[in-house]
TrEMBL record:
GO terms for biological process: chromatin remodeling; regulation of DNA-templated transcription. Belongs to the MRG family. Transmembrane segments: none annotated. InterPro entries: Chromo-like_dom_sf, Chromo/chromo_shadow_dom, MRG, MRG_C_sf, MRG_dom, MSL3_chromo-like. It comes from the Eukaryota. Residues 25-86 form the Chromo domain. Its main location: nucleus. SUPFAM superfamilies: Chromo domain-like. Residues 87-117 are annotated as: Disordered. This is Chromatin modification-related protein EAF3. Residues 87-98 have a biased composition (Low complexity).
Length: 329
């Protein structure tokens, strides 16, 4: 997940950088810089925007991004890039083998832009520095910290297939989910809370006391990460339109302002949950909190598997050619 302070960092035209697209990070170059006073047509945000070209990819993938999706091209962020890519490959290897003959796809991108050409990491923690033991020692300390914050989740096979189908619908078939969704993320999480308070799964510690706090945290995290990390390029114009309709539009009253968790549904929540281990690894959560969140996320995945026919959209909506042109512009 992009750091909250990254939007305050200034980047220059021609600068080499790293850029979030979905939950992963890619090397890019800034081609243009622009100050935006009105909500941007593809991001729905105002402020400084950067037109980026992803290294090794066709120009048709060049796009405008807000500063919060960028990272400086340095050793720390390169290590973060590689760590996310390695975790994504491991998490999605089974998806490509199970998804009805879709194993020909690049498993590293099952929840990211796999329609792009593959990008490999350009450095590692220990390998990026060549100035002796100090760099290696820091690398080992970083790895120890990540292991302490390691969060292992078990994604049911049927949900892995749904992730691949979701990717294919958006990136290959130019389709999007219907918004607002039903149930929404907010509704789904409330239903899950009611479920665990009634079922009392033995692996969850004190659900009557802890469930509300943990589930509220997941909802807040979804609201903060959706626009930055959970959308494919084709979905960004839809996101901008939804924000204008419910958040930034002139007709929206302050008391009517809504969060994205009350508009998006299970499809985007699942994308966030499979990216949670990488997000937690880069956080300052203590091991006990990581363990609690892990247990609740794994139970939530089981619940989503059981409720899959009710919570996931069966058929996505096909976008118009005009919409697709806007997404590519």
């Amino acid at each position: 997940m992009a750091e909250s302070s990254s939007s305050q960092i200034i980047y220059n035209q021609g600068e080499r950088c790293l850029c979030y697209h979905g939950p992963l990070i890619y090397e890019a170059k800034i081609l243009k810089v622009q100050e935006v006073e009105e909500p941007h047509p593809t991001t729905g945000q105002t402020g400084r925007h950067y037109f980026v070209h992803y290294k090794g990819w066709k120009q048709t993938w060049d796009e405008w991004v807000p500063g919060e999706r960028l990272l400086k091209f340095d050793e720390t962020n390169i290590a973060k890039q590689k760590s996310l890519q390695d975790a994504a490959k491991a998490a999605n290897a089974a998806s490509s083998n199970k998804a009805h003959g879709k194993s020909k796809h690049n498993t590293a991108g099952a929840t990211t832009g796999r329609d792009r050409e593959p990008i490999t990491a350009v450095g590692t923690r220990a390998g990026a520095r060549k100035d002796g033991a100090r760099g290696v020692k820091r690398a080992r300390e970083d790895d120890d910290n990540i292991r302490r914050n390691e969060m292992k989740i078990v994604v049911p096979e049927v949900l892995k297939v749904i992730l691949v189908d979701d990717w294919e619908a958006v990136t290959k078939n130019n389709q999007t989910v219907t918004l607002p969704r039903s149930p929404t993320v907010e509704q789904l999480l409330k239903q899950f809370e009611e479920h665990i308070k009634t079922a009392k799964p033995p692996n969850l510690r004190e659900p009557e006391i802890l469930a509300r706090t943990i589930i509220t945290g997941l909802q807040i995290y979804f609201d903060r990460s959706l626009g930055m990390n959970l959308l494919y390029r084709l979905e960004r114009p839809q996101y901008a339109m939804i924000r204008k309709q419910y958040v930034t539009g002139q007709q929206v009253k302050i008391e009517e302002n809504v969060e994205m968790s009350s508009l998006y549904g299970a499809e985007h929540l699942l994308r966030m949950l499979v990216a949670m281990p990488q997000m937690v690894a880069n956080s300052s959560m203590d091991p006990e909190s990581v363990g609690l969140v892990k247990d609740y996320v794994n139970e939530l995945l089981k619940y989503m598997e059981a409720e899959k026919d009710r919570i996931f959209q069966r058929e996505y909506e096909t976008t118009s050619q005009a919409y697709q042109n806007t997404a590519r512009s």
